[in-house]
UniProtKB/TrEMBL annotation:
This is RmlC-like cupin. Keywords: Iron, Metal-binding. Residues 17-124 form the Pirin N-terminal domain. Gene3D superfamilies: Jelly Rolls. The lineage of its organism: Eukaryota, Fungi, Dikarya, Basidiomycota, Agaricomycotina. GO terms for molecular function: metal ion binding. It comes from Calocera viscosa (strain TUFC12733).
Length: 271
């Protein structure tokens, strides 16, 4: 992992991620998960799981338990049916984000709804304290509002502008020091991000992921090309690729679409 003494950018290539084809499920694991283990990629700060899943129609993850994790799903395409032991039943579509704070324990299922496969990202983070009451939230963000803008889709419950309502506007409230931003960058567009100055003198973690909208492949990443730059450094990544970024508070990072097609990008800012 990079040091925190300067801005550092370290790529995480798609074909180096853990991956599996179970027939009903095609999945990539950015961090250690299930039978995939890599001590060099075993989470990043409070971020523990970043899976890119494609699930065939009529199948999915059957009812299973979770506890002491913040679990959110970002739907890219298709429809995802969620059911849980708190009584929530919901069909999530493109642009929807669902957050379950598992706390002391829940059971849920996530299955494809309808005749088309569902493509979604499954993301877990560690809560800042144990024993929380289980809660559930959904939010919706349109392609229009994400186009060439950083849209805050998940933020710490204590952050400004965060509502603890089950549904509504603004980011979903997470019980972790993790903020998730999303954008759809058109070709030639660049967005800056300046790391917050809280905790001056301490390092700041971030992770950038380019969603693999062009399809599933086990070889080198294809499709959209994104350049991450800052502090005199730059790295290019493609669909399915990601990059670890670490820098001091107050430093600026730029994310630019240098390819020919749109790029859907997630950016995790981790305290």
């Amino acid at each position: 992992m990079p040091s925190a003494s300067t801005l550092e950018i370290v790529p995480r290539r798609s074909n180096e991620r853990g991956n599996a084809d179970h027939g009903w499920l095609k999945t990539f694991h950015t961090y250690s998960f299930a039978s995939y283990y890599d001590p060099n990629h075993d989470g990043f700060g409070a971020l523990r799981v970043l899976n890119e899943d494609r699930v065939r129609p009529g199948t999915g993850f059957g009812t299973h338990p979770h506890r002491e994790f913040e679990i959110f799903s970002y739907v890219v395409s298709g429809e995802l049916e969620h059911r849980d032991s708190m009584g929530n039943v919901e069909v999530l579509k493109r642009g929807d984000l669902q957050l379950t704070s598992a706390g002391t324990g829940i059971r849920h299922s996530e299955k494809t709804y309808g005749a088309k496969p569902v493509h979604f990202l499954q993301i877990w983070s560690l809560p800042w304290r144990s024993g929380l009451a289980p809660t559930y939230f959904t939010r919706h963000f349109t392609d229009e509002e994400k186009t060439n803008n950083w849209v805050r889709v998940v933020a710490p419950v204590s952050a400004e502008g965060v509502s603890e309502k089950r549904e509504g506007a603004g980011p979903a409230p997470v019980q972790s020091p993790v903020t998730l931003w999303a954008t759809i960058l058109t070709p030639g567009t660049a967005l800056p991000h300046t790391f917050p100055t809280e905790g001056a003198g301490k390092g700041r973690k971030a992770y950038v992921h380019v969603i693999q909208t062009g399809g599933y492949n086990e070889g080198p990443a294809k499709g959209a090309t994104v350049k991450i730059s800052g502090d005199g450094k730059d790295v290019e990544i493609r669909e399915g690729d990601g990059a670890y970024v670490m820098g001091l508070p107050g430093r600026e990072m730029r994310v630019e679409n240098v390819g020919e097609g749109n790029a859907e990008v997630l950016f995790f800012d981790i305290e």
